[in-house]
Design goal:
The protein is mostly helical. It has 15 helices and 2 strands. Strands 1-2 form a two-stranded antiparallel ribbon. A hairpin with a 5-residue loop joins β1 and β2.
Length: 410
């Protein structure tokens, strides 16, 4: 790959995650602010919109994008349409109406995640070696934008969507200057089953893979609580500069990603996945019982555990799936996992998190802002994670950890 192409792709990835990171973790804080006064259920619905879009995106990519349009041009158009939707979204101050605008935006945004990856990988001779150095710019970008939001103290302001809107315009125009990535399946047909990864259903004959699949879907329910509720919870606990401190979670994600090959060779797949699940439980208890005035270290621990939670379960799981599937159904297996987790699992979790938040509403403060029993809120995802852990320990019985999996991480 030419150095100029590499720089182009790194800028693309930086802008892609800058646009996303500006609003995603802060959206609940904005919706719960006195400016909007959304209910917990409306907050949950807003995050569910992203999951709905992730269910629709594979069909959009598989049936349309891969057959009729150059990826970089389609990504540019989607970003420009998304920017227009964000402009109208910034005018909305009612939680119920907000859902339809964020849904429309997510339907434009979700396909760009796959398109950006496709554009990058189509330029590479060895994606497994070249892609990580480009993808890491996305994580760095997320850290940068959340710190900007924190320093500006606009996490609960409409500014987060305005930052995303401006970035979307810039990226939309920039996409038309990216390397040409023509449709790769122009003369091929795709079935409904292929798009949802039905070819990988054969893997369910393996009990351990079935247990892993079910556990992956279920653990995405508490994962949704983290994305939707961590920011307002930490703010209500008395923690200051929440966005800046939450960026430590992305920093830990990079750190533990680098440790993954060593940890995998030492522990193997089952222990790695168990460690990830235990980390989820610990972090929810930290959020539930931590307090910025007396036990702020618990809140910090809950934040930095994100690296173990995400890398040890989800990234290890992706490698495990890749190895179990084999070459013929590898893509179908990864597509099935993505659809089930980020679509179905996180969709259920987002909706449930909003319902739970409303259940534990305790009143309204002097500024007109709703107050909640956050300890009770966090015990719900902690309980779900405990059930998933027990399910996994009792029924997952992968006896031999293949060195092939560890080699793929190296």
């Amino acid at each position: 790959m030419k150095q100029s192409t590499r720089i182009q792709l790194m800028i693309m990835m930086f802008l892609q995650f800058f646009m996303w990171g500006a609003w995603y973790g802060q959206m609940s804080k904005y919706l719960l602010s006195p400016e909007v006064k959304a209910t917990g259920d409306q907050v949950g619905n807003a995050y569910t919109a992203f999951s709905i879009a992730n269910i629709v995106a594979p069909f959009f990519i598989g049936l349309i994008a891969d057959r009729y349009f150059a990826a970089q041009k389609l990504m540019g158009v989607l970003n420009l349409i998304g920017a227009a939707i964000l402009f109208f979204l910034t005018q909305v101050k009612e939680g119920g109406t907000f859902f339809w605008y964020i849904l429309a935006y997510c339907l434009c945004f979700a396909p760009t995640l796959a398109l950006s990856t496709a554009i990058a990988m189509r330029q590479m001779k060895s994606p497994e070696k070249e892609f990580p150095a480009i993808r890491v710019l996305g994580t760095i970008s997320w850290i940068v934008v959340t710190n900007i939001v924190g320093w500006m103290a606009v996490g609960d302001k409409v500014t987060i969507f305005q930052i995303s809107m401006i970035t979307s315009v810039i990226l939309g125009i920039y996409c038309f200057f990216l390397p040409d990535t023509p449709p790769k399946a122009k003369d091929q047909s795709a079935t409904f089953g292929q798009i949802i990864g039905a070819d990988a259903f054969v893997l369910f004959k393996d009990r351990s893979f079935l247990v892993f699949f079910i556990s992956s879907v279920l653990i995405c329910i508490p994962l949704s609580f983290y994305y939707a509720m961590a920011n307002p919870s930490l703010t209500d606990s008395g923690m200051t500069n929440v966005e800046n401190k939450m960026s430590l979670g992305q920093a830990s994600e990079v750190f533990f990603m680098l440790l993954l090959p060593l940890a995998y060779s030492k522990f193997g797949v089952k222990k790695m996945l168990i460690i990830g699940l235990i980390a989820w439980i610990v972090r929810f208890f930290c959020f539930g019982y931590g307090d910025a005035n007396s036990t702020e270290w618990m809140l910090y621990l809950g934040i930095v555990l994100h690296g173990i939670c995400y890398d040890f379960f989800f990234v290890t799981g992706q490698i495990y799936t890749d190895n179990k599937a084999g070459d013929k159904i590898k893509a179908s297996a990864q597509g099935l996992i993505t659809l089930a987790t980020y679509g179905v699992g996180m969709g259920i979790g987002s909706k449930l998190s909003g319902i739970v938040l409303d259940m534990y509403k305790t009143g309204v403060d002097a500024a007109g802002k709703a107050t909640y029993n956050w300890t009770s809120v966090w015990l719900v995802p902690a309980g779900i994670a405990i059930v998933v852990l027990l399910l996994f320990v009792l029924f997952f019985s992968e006896k031999n950890s293949s060195t092939k999996e560890a080699e793929q991480m190296a």
